[in-house]
Every structure is written in structure tokens, then in C-alpha cells.
What we know:
Blueprint: H1 21-49, H2 55-61, H3 63-81, H4 87-118, H5 124-129, H6 133-138, H7 142-166, H8 174-189, H9 208-214, H10 217-226, E1 265-271, H11 296-302, E2 306-308, E3 311-312, H12 318-327, H13 350-356, E4 360-365, H14 374-380, E5 385-387, H15 405-419, E6 424-429, H16 439-442, H17 452-474, H18 478-481, E7 483-489, E8 509-510, E9 512-515, E10 526-528, E11 532-533, H19 537-546, E12 566-571, E13 574-579, E14 582-587, H20 597-611
Parallel strand pairs: 1-6, 1-7, 2-10, 3-11, 4-5, 4-6
Antiparallel strand pairs: 2-9, 3-8, 7-9, 12-13, 13-14
Amino acid sequence: xxxxxxxxxxxxxxxxxxxxxxxxxxxxxxxxxxxxxxxxxxxxxxxxxxxxxxxxxxxxxxxxxxxxxxxxxxxxxxxxxxxxxxxxxxxxxxxxxxxxxxxxxxxxxxxxxxxxxxxxxxxxxxxxxxxxxxxxxxxxxxxxxxxxxxxxxxxxxxxxxxxxxxxxxxxxxxxxxxxxxxxxxxxxxxxxxxxxxxxxxxxxxxxxxxxxxxxxxxxxxxxxxxxxxxxxxxxxxxxxxxxxxxxxxxxxxxxxxxxxxxxxxxxxxxxxxxxxxxxxxxxxxxxxxxxxxxxxxxxxxxxxxxxxxxxxxxxxxxxxxxxxxxxxxxxxxxxxxxxxxxxxxxxxxxxxxxxxxxxxxxxxxxxxxxxxxxxxxxxxxxxxxxxxxxxxxxxxxxxxxxxxxxxxxxxxxxxxxxxxxxxxxxxxxxxxxxxxxxxxxxxxxxxxxxxxxxxxxxxxxxxxxxxxxxxxxxxxxxxxxxxxxxxxxxxxxxxxxxxxxxxxxxxxxxxxxxxxxxxxxxxxxxxxxxxxxxxxxxxxxxxxxxxxxxxxxxxxxxxxxxxxxxxxxxxxxxxxxxxxxxxxxxxxxxxxxxxxxxxxxxxxxxxxxxxxxxx
Length: 615
């Protein structure tokens, strides 16, 4: 009987001897799938942001980084494939495929979320916040958590199918695998040139979103994880030397006394995410959300107070805002001062200056004070007593982040009722207007809707009314009649308009006012239009109360005729400068442009200060 010819095996992803030609075909299929996955992740990122039209362009610009990530994943798969077939090696093979899918797609989804919230992607600052998992989870909405769980389960099922059906583990040519891993190494490195692939290799546009989309999300994740001490390269911004406003010496003699009392109680209220663009009194006039103010009490207070209509936050996060307000410390393009406790002792705090005048100093926060070293920083800046959710009355209802603003203000009121005999300097950091804005679940009166912007509006109104109730309850008390009330925001927010996006001028525009019965009559109903910074709160207060220059090195007196009338803001890869001539905005992660020379001079000053150990 004649031998039947052997039919070719068309299922080459599953069969084939180690030395057959199908070995390389099969592994080329693996690499092709990995590359297609990177391209798909980019489409997911852009699709979630509503910019899927940029997909072909960014794929063409980001192919090197995609290929690099394929190389890394290929090396990892090759290492597992070298193991002899066994139950454990099959398990490891499935786990690696799960990591490939989960990391690639989850980072794309996460980057889209970070871009919407902060105007950036996963970075060193995000990595730092992961040290506080409870707070990170508290920031997520129920939908986001369910979506993350569903995506993880989907990736688990898909990885099981990939590892058992499409690309099952089998005996491989050891030499062939080593050759493929060597090729993977070349791809991961970015070629055989002298310089390996850099984080800036995909920067090709003046549009930050295009640059971010072109660079691979997974590659960026591993870069951040392996470069935890990385600070953005500011070499391009070192240039002309100027006396930047942060280093200007303000005269204080031309600043009349703010208070009718020599030692008034000073209540500093730092409002979470209060954007000036949501206020009728502080907005730039471009329009309010739904045509009305979300902080009516603050507006009414501003009309009878000393208000600063053109104040800008120095950064985009609460930790940067606290450093600016409590220490006069400017924002940075990398992590904030609160992330580096070993540097706290270098700086003087606003509360220290009040303590030296005989004030009792305290700091109040409704959340976990250990988050982002918040209470540790407050103590270092001179607050002798620090209270957070762990040390405040446990009978109050808690939401995901902690105690509501109303409950903390009740505790603060009780404290002042029993401690007003000595002058008090008190800082309160509000919480209820922090995402995910769960106020509507606590009080049905503020249920404006369930979209993120509607919940934000609810939270603003809730915190504004909590402040109103506090003032009304205590208006007739003696300690209140002897108080100065300072209200300022920690940072702004994107309110989904065309002019408040992260990095734009209006994003950093925040309310700031000085009010209270102890404010001198001559300062009431007076609006200051000087462009000033969040860092100026400290020196303005100390100069206005006692005519003294503060030890806060980077704080200026906003009431002085010598104030330079400018403000700067800094976030991850973003720089901004505002003065009477207009606004300059730029990004470190785009190609330099000649019109940013002035901004380069600003960064030169910050760079020099960092090198001297001043920053």
C-alpha cells in the first residue's frame, strides 16, 4: 500500500517541532499580535478622549516606542518559553499573557482618566499617591471601580484563551528563542545606535495631546517605575537671567493695617477645588456654568470684603496649594514639597510667624492627615495642634474621603468657643468638594445630577453653604467679632469649557478674599485687580497686620505698590506666566518655541534656586 502524502499543518500557532520553519512563523505571529495590541491601546486612549481621528497620525509617529514595548514583552515571553513544559510553566505562560493584556489596556484607560482630571498621564506624582491606596480608591466613582473590575475579568478570560488556544506553550528551539530575544532587546532599546530610546523620542508636535498619544502608555508606565527620582529636563528652559518676581523684595511700609484689632483671630479657610470661574464675583467674565454662580455665599462675602480678583494657583494639586499658601513655596514642574518630608525643615511657615506673636496655632482637615504627609507638613510649618478624621468626633457620618465640611466646621466652632481667650490662628482645609464629589449622597438638597460636572456643582454649593452656616451661627459671638477670615482655594479645576482646560490660564484662576468683623472699614468692599499668586497670601497677611516682612522667601505683599503684578504656575510638564501684558503658556514636552523666552528666564531662576538647595 502506497504511503499517503503528509498534509501541511495549517494550525502552525499550535503545532510544529522546535526546528521547523513554523517556529519562526509562530513567533512572528506573537510579535505581530503584541504590536497590534499597542496600536489598539492607543485607539482606546484617544477614543475615550473623543480624539480617535488622531489615531493614524500618532501611530505613525509612535511606532518606535510601540516596537520597543513589543521587544520588552517578547523578551519576557521568551524567558518563560525557555522553561520546560510543565504545569507551573503553563501557569507562568498564562500569567505573562494576562500581564501583557492588563497592563497594555489598563494603562491606556488610566492615562485617559488622568488626562481628563489633571491634563497629564501616569507620572511620578501619580506613583507617589499610590502609597495611599485607600484615598486613591476613595477618589474613584462606583462606575470607575466596576469598569476596572470588568476590564480585569475580561483580560483574565482573554489571556486564558490566548495562552491555551492561540499561542499555547510548547517545546521551542532554545537557540531560536535566544535569537528572537536578542532581536527583542534591540527593539526594546530602540535600535543599535549610541543613544537608546528616550522618553522624548515621540515628541513631534506643539500639541501636548498628540505627543502623549504618540508615546506608548505601557512604556511610560515602566519608565516612571524605574525613574522614581526623575525630574523633567529643564535644560531647554535655562537661558537669560532676570530678577523673577519670586525673588523681588517688597516694601511693606505702604501697606496700611488690615485689622482694627492688634491681634485678631485669623481663620484661614483653604477651599478644595474652588475655581474662580464658578463665581460671579471672581470669574473672568467668560461665562459661568449654566449661567449662575455655584458659590453664592462667597460672592456675597466678596462684595463686602477685601477681594483679589486676579489670583492664580501655583499648581494643580492640593499638596502644591498647601505648600504655596502655608510656606509661600512656589509650584514645581515635578513633585511638590509635601512629597519630600526631609526638606520641610528648610522652610519657614506662616503659622510659625503667628506662633511667634503669641498665637495658638491649629490645623483642621476632615480626611486622613497622613495622606500626602498633610498633617506632618502642617506641623512643620508651625501648627501646634493638628486634627483630622482620626481625632475628630467619631459620631459624625463619613463619606469616602472622610468628614463633611459641615461637620468639621461644627467641631471647629466648638473649639473656638472654648479657646478664644488667647488669639487663634487656625487653618482649615475643606474636603467635600474633592472628587468623586459624594455630597449628593449625604444631602438630597444638593442633588443637581449624577454626571461628574453636576456632582462637582453640588459639592461647590454644599461647601459654600456650609461656610455660610458657620458664619451665620457665630456672627454674634465675641470671638467671631474679633476675627479675620481669609478664604482662598488650593487649586482650580477644568469646568468643561473651552478656556479652563488643564494648563490654561483660567484653570489656575482661584478666589481669594480677606473678610470678617476685624477687617478695617477702609478695606471693605474693595477689590484688588493686581495679578498675584497663591504664594502671596502669607506675606500679605503679615505685612497687613503688623507691617513686617515675612520669612516666607517667595511670598510677596499683594497690597504693596511694589508688587510686580505677575504670577506663575507649574505642573507636570507645564509652565505658565501671567502679567499685565498677557499670558504665556508652554509645556516642557513640546518642541521649544521662540515666544517662550520669558518663560525660559523664569525657569532659569527656579533651576538656579534648586541647584543652590533653595528649592
